[in-house]
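The authors assume throughout that readers already know how a fold can be written as discrete tokens. The format is easy to grasp once an entry is in front of the reader. For illustration, here is how one protein appears when written out as sequence plus structure tokens:
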Amino acid sequence: MVREALFKSSILFMVLGGLFITSAGLIYTIERAAANISGNIKAAGFMAGQLQGQTPIPKMPGFIDNFYVPSLTVLGIILLVLGTRKELK
């Protein structure tokens, strides 16, 4: 009975870990897409106004710029490790 409960909780940990890592990747991808779109809107306005000078280049966010991305990734990895570890006897 205890073994079945440990097995179910380990599957739950693995599923939650995968979901946390997937959500971190989704947030990171959406953040980069939004930065790319906003940077290209600036560049389009710059070119449409026939302004002189250097065209602005969009700055892409890094992995640790958003608090949620690394924290969800670390939490997901911890849950995956807890889900895959075996009970020592």
